[in-house]
Write a structure and sequence with these properties.
six-stranded mixed sheet; Alpha-Beta Plaits; 16 strands; Aminopeptidase; 21% strand; Peptidase_M20; four-stranded antiparallel sheet; alpha/beta
Length: 424
């Protein structure tokens, strides 16, 4: 998929130093309010599966209502509501979407946690609790940003829609997908998603996905008569070995992302590399028989510059000389990204200089997010949140100061972006 760029090209700065100083001061003055909202969010379980977000949706709607902002809920499954709020300046301009998700990953082994799972723990500059990294810290920051933008309604043109959606963790059909299908106006002209790529980086895009099923057949017989490489399991084992060796390959980096090739990155970051995970393996029927059938399911994560069709052909070519092997696609889509020169990315980096004194290093997120749904429809989308590492896990947490910085970044980016599209 080609990179997207927002309408009108790069913008000129529309937010002055004084505004940046005021927003930072406003956010700092709300520290305890933001932490309290984080506590309420953590205390509202929303693990997916099963994906029941009614309680946490109520927390978000109440928080916005307490700040004088009207909300509505939308759902296709009543257990999975999404909370929407619209701000309209009454003046021509772009439509910016501010997006977060309400559901969380499961906690894993709760006995391995050193802090309560469902209760906020504030310790050593960190806020612990399930979902704080992914992504209740971002929810609190974005609710704060919406409030600040509402209070400054006279300072920006266009429209803003806040969309706190359900069913993102499993990339399901009951959240953002449902909203875009039933309310196409929610595409907008740009999207900021609270999904963090980790390590204080700005995600311009995310890897594609390709799921393949590899099947092997072999000659039947008693195990005592087996020949080397003739059983389905032996053939599949060779196939698995070969596809595992494909991990680390790169495609031809698109022109607007070439600067990323020079970044040192962080250890373990495979955003620009192909990875192949053999997720499941099954074969044979009995230990004393030669296996006549075996299957492996592969999860390939595709970097920009390596389309799904090319990756599938690479697997087919790699396995083509193994007898009895067949490859079938389960599902897949290409990597997606937004140009670092787009108006939205330019506005973000200006805000970053105000908030932290330097722009954020760009990144390609490893897992998928709802932002891809907008990029695939040609809308520029950025991902940034207070998730500290690649993914949440045991002792899920966010840095308290980073949650506050996110609130300021969301606010200032929105102001800058909308100023640059005045009259459009």
């Amino acid at each position: 998929m080609t990179a997207t760029s927002s309408p009108g090209g790069p913008v000129t700065a529309g937010v002055g130093t004084d505004v940046g100083t005021e927003v930072l001061a406003d956010v700092a003055g709300r520290r305890e309010e933001i932490v309290a909202l984080c506590a309420d969010l953590v205390a509202a379980p929303s693990v997916n599966p099963p994906g029941d977000t009614r309680q946490v949706a109520g927390v978000v709607a109440a928080a916005l209502g307490d700040r004088g902002i009207d909300t509505r809920t939308e759902h296709t499954d009543p257990l999975m509501p999404s909370v929407l709020a619209g701000l309209d300046s009454g003046r021509p301009g772009a439509h910016l979407i501010l997006n977060v998700h309400l559901d969380t990953m499961p906690p894993g082994d709760e006995a391995a946690w050193s802090v309560p799972v469902w209760e906020l723990t504030r310790r050593d500059g960190r806020l612990y609790g399930l979902g704080m990294g992914n992504m209740k810290g971002a929810v609190a920051a974005m609710v704060t940003a919406v409030d600040l933008l509402e209070q400054r309604r006279g300072d920006w043109p266009g429209r803003i829609t806040f969309a706190a959606v359900s069913d993102e963790v499993v990339f399901g059909d009951n959240g953002a997908a449902f909203l875009l299908r039933t309310h196409p106006d929610l595409l907008g002209d740009g999207l900021i998603c609270g999904e963090g790529p980790g390590f204080e980086r700005l995600a311009l895009g995310e890897k594609g996905v390709l799921w393949l099923r590899v099947t092997a057949v072999g000659d039947p017989g008693h195990s005592s008569s087996v020949r080397r490489g003739a059983s389905a399991t032996a053939r599949l084992a060779e196939a698995v070995r070969r596809v595992d060796d494909l991990t680390g390959r790169r495609g031809a980096l698109p022109a607007d992302l070439t600067a990323m090739a020079d970044l040192t990155g962080v250890p373990g970051d495979t955003g620009l590399e192909l990875t192949v995970n053999v997720g499941t393996v099954a074969g044979g029927t009995f230990i004393g028989q030669v296996a006549t059938g075996a299957t492996a399911e592969l999860d390939l994560r595709l970097p920009p510059g390596l389309p799904a069709d090319d990756a599938e052909q690479l697997v087919r070519d790699t396995l083509g000389d193994i007898p009895g092997i067949a490859v079938a696609r389960i599902k897949g889509w290409d990597a997606n990204w937004t140009s670092p020169d787009s108006a939205l990315a330019t506005s973000w980096q200006r805000a970053a200089r105000t908030v932290r004194g330097a722009p954020h290093d760009p990144a390609v997120r490893l897992p998928a997010s709802d932002a891809s749904r907008w990029r695939q429809r040609g809308v520029p989308a950025l991902c940034f949140g207070p998730q500290p590492t690649f993914s949440a896990g045991i002792d899920d947490h966010a840095e308290e100061d980073e949650v506050l910085r996110c609130a300021a970044l969301y606010t200032l980016t929105a102001l800058d972006f909308l100023h640059g599209t005045a009259g459009s």
